[in-house]
């Protein structure tokens, strides 16, 4: 097997092409589902269960982080009314990347990356700005090399659930508005 890399995963669909690319590049991804931003809890578990379909398909280890939504809310406090892609989202990226860094250190894994960069709706530059100072963070832009389209294709093949809002209650509110 290749070098272990902790892959912070936001959801099953985004993990597909990211995992495929990392495997092709010789890594052994360890999947870390750490997404306290997702609301409600049932949605958090639904996304995790879909990640497990991907993990089983590729035969990969998966770690489930606790759902600390209260902590996440405290972290983004004051930004509840921000529009998506604003400061709240930068804080949200930071929150999840800090937890990924802590888990990588705990496991003695020297590199980590995030599937957040697969989404064509998210700026990879904004994500890198939140992880760049964390030792071991790999600035891998998974939407490159046709990563987004490939994730859509693989998600269909695996029959994955694809949500139509980002994750937190504020993005759900904005979707419904
Ligand atoms: S919209 Fe998405 S990225 Fe932004 S704060 Fe909510 S869950 Fe996080």
Tell me the name of the CATH class.
Alpha Beta
Major sheet size, sense and barrel closure = 4 strands, parallel
Low-confidence stretches: none
CATH topology: Rossmann fold
How many angstroms does the end-to-end distance come to?
A: 47 Å
Number of domains: 1
Specify the number of helices. Answer: 7
Output the helix-strand order: EHEHEHHEHHH
Q: Report mean pLDDT, rounded to a whole number.
A: 97
Strand order in the sheet with the most strands: 3-2-1-4
CATH architecture: 3-Layer(aba) Sandwich
Bound molecule types: iron/sulfur cluster
Structural class: alpha/beta
Architecture overview:
The chain has 177 residues and is of the alpha/beta class. It has a single domain, classed as 3-Layer(aba) Sandwich (Rossmann fold). 49% of the residues lie in helices and 11% in strands. It has a four-stranded parallel β-sheet, sandwiched between helices. The N and C termini lie far apart (47 Å).
Question: Which features characterize this protein?
Answer:
four-stranded parallel β-sheet, binds iron/sulfur cluster, 177 residues, 49% helix, 7 helices, alpha/beta
